[in-house]
Amino acid sequence: MKKIGIFASGTGTNFDALASSEQIKNLADIDIMVCDKPGAKVIKKAEDKNIKAFVFNPKDYENKAAYEKEILEKVKDLDYIFLAGYMRILSKDFLEKFKGKVINIHPSLLPKYKGIESIKRAYEAGEEYIGVTIHYVNEEIDGGEILAQDKFKVDYTKSLDEIESQVHEVEHRLYIKTGGEILKGEK
């Protein structure tokens, strides 16, 4: 059985989707949830699922290298790390220790709309399709090898909030499917 960790910073909807999925649970033990925001809603979701949580405040550390060193100690035995709304950029040193083992989900059809507020930017640009990308993480923000994408045609009679909800539905479905394929060695 593979051992995975999920890194998150906010409400934890993608964390919850992965941690609640029977497919994922049949293929891997979710060993830890790492969160950089004390008080984030994802912490309670991890506790409710009896998943160990490592929560830290980056301001409590001298620098990025110091908190990443502590994270690496906590996750050193993992097979994969799934980023689920984790809003910190992982360093080159961190990524080298988990080369080809860190997966991210991003709410746009990469390479378009990298970075933050991607759904809003795509919506305001009048894109015909909005979607989701799952990719390996490298040193470039939202720039790693693409593993999977899914999209839907935008109905502009819907508000941005409604479109964001649609994106989250696609994210959850696609992350579970792609995560399962990764854990089975199919990706």
From TrEMBL:
(6R)-10-formyltetrahydrofolate binds at K64, M87, R88, I89, L90, N104. It comes from the Bacteria. It catalyses: N(1)-(5-phospho-beta-D-ribosyl)glycinamide + (6R)-10-formyltetrahydrofolate = N(2)-formyl-N(1)-(5-phospho-beta-D-ribosyl)glycinamide + (6S)-5,6,7,8-tetrahydrofolate + H(+). Pathway: Purine metabolism; IMP biosynthesis via de novo pathway; N(2)-formyl-N(1)-(5-phospho-D-ribosyl)glycinamide from N(1)-(5-phospho-D-ribosyl)glycinamide (10-formyl THF route): step 1/1. PROSITE patterns: GART (PS00373). N(1)-(5-phospho-beta-D-ribosyl)glycinamide binds at G12, T13, N14. Residues 2-177 form the Formyl transferase N-terminal domain. InterPro entries: Formyl_transf_N (IPR002376), Formyl_transf_N_sf (IPR036477), GART (IPR004607), GART_AS (IPR001555). Belongs to the GART family. This is Phosphoribosylglycinamide formyltransferase.
